[in-house]
Each structure stands twice: as C-alpha cells, then as structure tokens.
Amino acid sequence: MDFTLLENSIGYTFKDKKILEQALTHTSYANTKNIQSNEKLEFFGDSILEYVSSEFIYNKYSKLKEGEMTKVRATVVCEDSLYEVALRHNFSDFLLLGKSEQHNDKTKLKAILADSVEAVIAGMCIDGGIEVAKKFIIDNLKDAIEQATQHVGVKDYKTVLQEKLQINGNVKIVYEIIEESGPDHDKRFKAQVSCNGKKLAVGEGKSKKSAEMQAAQHALEN
C-alpha cells in the first residue's frame, strides 16, 4: 500500500514503511495473513501519549493543581479525541481490516481507529525517535488541551447550579441536546438545561459535555 498521502498528512515520512503498515494492521487482518497486528504498538503508543501530554500540561499550565491536570489529561487522552485525530488524517483509508470487521457499527470502528492512532504514535517513536512522536501529539492535541484547561472547572458549574436550585428542596434538573451540527470530525452541539420543566439556559460546545457545562454556566449568569 502507498502511504504517501497519510505521511504527508501526519507530517512524517517513515524510513521503514513496514512499521507504519504494522501500526495500521488490525488483528482481524493480521490473523488472516499470519502477520503481526498493531496491538503491541498500541500498548507502547498509549504510554507515549500519556507521558507527552502530561509533560506538555505540566510545563505549559503550571498553575493548574495536580487534580486539575489529571482531569485535563483524561479529557483529552481518550477515545473521542483520538478518533478525531484519525478522522483528520483519514486513517480509515489506510487501515488494514479483516472482512469480519469491515462492516462494523460506528462505535466499534471508532475504537479501532482511536487505537490505530496510538499505534502510529509508537511507530513514529520507533522509526524516528521520541521528538517525532511528541511533535505529532502536541500538534494534534494542543487545541483540545487548551480548551480543556479553560473548562477544567466546568464540572463545578453543574454542581453549583444544582446546589443553588436545590437550596429549598429537591428539584428535577434536566440537560438535553437540542441541536447537533457539522461533520463527524467537527461536530457542534447545543444543550438546554431546565428545572422542573422550565427552560433556564442554552449552551454550545464541541462535545455534549461542554455544551451542557456552558448551559449551566449561562443559567448561573442569568
């Protein structure tokens, strides 16, 4: 397979193409060809991803507390974020899947693509060194990290709103996604929060969670 388009997209040309091919080889395909899958690379890439993101957060957002840093990392180093990276670079065009996996539902394919990003990160490190892998990770996740640091206390908005609304007794607080727009790799969500059936506020975000948090924030501001 010609990986030129993918290499151009990720910003790195592999010296050993077999490493990249292995990083994109799912077990379902490997088993039919009696070759090695990307599982071990995925394991290695997961560790690299956690280390690089932790170092970046620690150095750039030193004012955050340890617990806040952990929340930011957990928000960014997750299946959803890695899936977005895979979409951004069209990993699905190069992924080697067995016939049994080619018609998976979106949820399972999402996990497979996210895993392949970790495997490619490991492949970059092996083929070109840690700095190559680090550049790819930071280039692709720095915006998500920045957004996560801005909303590191977003959980508090919902908590504070709940406390204020329940000061005189229990009430029913409901968050609802009322609008979804944009392509899969750049979704936008609009959420509405209501209390005992009364609409309080609306919020928007790149994830359902961030949209709900903004709705809670607007409700508090109002």
How would you describe this structure to a colleague?
By secondary structure, the chain is mainly α. It is built from ten helices and three strands. Strands 1-2-3 form a three-stranded antiparallel sheet. A hairpin with a 6-residue loop joins strand 1 (173-181) and strand 2 (188-195). The mean pLDDT is 91.
Question: Which descriptors would you attach to this protein?
Answer:
Double Stranded RNA Binding Domain, Ribonuclease iii, N-terminal Endonuclease Domain, Chain A, about 220 residues
CATH topology of the largest domain: Ribonuclease iii, N-terminal Endonuclease Domain, Chain A
End-to-end CA span: 57 Å
Estimated radius of gyration: 20 Å
CATH architecture of the largest domain: Orthogonal Bundle
Assigned CATH superfamily of the largest domain: Ribonuclease III domain
Report on the biggest sheet.
3 strands, antiparallel
Helix content: 55-70%
Low-confidence stretches: none
The number of helical elements comes to 10
The 3D shape can be described as: elongated
Compute the number of strand runs: 3
Which CATH first-tier class of the largest domain would you pick? Mainly Alpha
Strand content: 5-15%
Average pLDDT rating: 91
Q: Going across the biggest sheet, name each strand in turn.
A: 1-2-3
Structural class: mainly alpha
Query: Please, how many domains?
Result: 2
Provide a concise account of the structure shown.
The protein has 222 residues and is mostly helical.
